[in-house]
Amino acid sequence: MLRIHDELRRGAFTNCSKLAEKLEVSRKTIARDIAFMRDRLHLPIEFDAPINAYRYTQPVSAFPTVQVSEGELLALLVARKALEQYRGTPFHRQLEASFDKLTGGLKDRITFSPADELQSVSFKNSGLGKADLEIFNALSAAVLRQHEAEFDYRKPGETKAERRRVQPYHLAHRENLWYLVAFDSERGALRTFALPRISNPTVKKTTFTRPVDFSPEKFFATALGVLGGERDYRVVVRFSAVVADRVREREWHESQEMRALPDGGLELTLRLGALPEIERWVLTWGADAEVIQPKELRERVKATVALLAKRYR
């Protein structure tokens, strides 16, 4: 259809036979494409019998590559509003530019204004992570081009950074923070690096081949948020009736199973690979959550609660 459009735009005397020969398709295919361009894309095409050729009846500046329904357009505009939650972060400018490219083909084709409806739509994420745009761009380029990289990395709670050389596999945005999943050459294993703790990155000329069996879904499969592990814990947490609906209304993990309790509470079962992250999550629910299994997690929460009781005594 783009080739047909080019022929019509430059005023060539063309018809189904000529186009079929040039594009090496059947006349029926050409006729079907022209009908689609005229009836679905609303291009001003007509057949001029005296010259036995198709032509545009008025100038056409560009081929309408984006076709959306009213509902799809509303979804796009909601997505545009959702971008505002990233304002002030290094990704907002790039996301905005990408969105503008997607919607560029809709200019002069919008027949309604949903501005009033969107006044009731808002987005707010607390604790959005911070990351330097230059660091983000350098690491994303290394991931896409499969180049090794070096950077200084400061572990949580430590004051000094350590130089790391890695093969960057994947960039993930999880729990409002960007993470780099990379193979650490010195440690011989995959590691997860938080971008705000990375500094002085250098992308090397040395290339690598990412393993074909690597997938971010598989890597994060045992994590509630970011931190996975090689263990297989069956985690059971009981929630009081006060917060049961709040727990029930969300998808916490692919493995989750929920069971209603007689008192109105809820029992949540998860299969996870590490305990520290789930411990912190359970504690956010205060006295409305109780760990039932595994015993190790129950003891960790019990020890933390004892320290809190001592601190607030």
General description of the model:
The chain is of the alpha+beta class. The chain folds into 4 domains: 2-56, Arc Repressor Mutant, subunit A (Orthogonal Bundle); 70-118, no CATH class; 133-219, SH3 type barrels (Roll), CATH 2.30.30; 233-311. Helix content is 34%, strand content 24%. The protein has helices at 2-9, 16-23, 27-39, 70-82, 92-103, 115-118, 133-145, 216-219, 244-248, 276-283, 295-311; strands at 45-48, 53-56, 147-153, 162-174, 177-184, 189-194, 198-207, 233-239, 257-260, 266-272, 289-293. The strands form 3 sheets. A 5-stranded antiparallel beta sheet has the order 6-5-4-3-7, covered by helices on one side. The longest helix has 17 residues, at 295-311.
Reported for the largest beta sheet, the result is: 5 strands, antiparallel
Major sheet strand order: 6-5-4-3-7
Q: From the helix content, strand content and strand pairing, which structural class follows?
A: alpha+beta
N→C terminal distance: 75 Å
Question: Measured on Cα atoms, how large is the radius of gyration?
Answer: 28 Å
Assembly type: single chain
CATH topology description of the largest domain:
SH3 type barrels
CATH C-level name of the largest domain: Mainly Beta
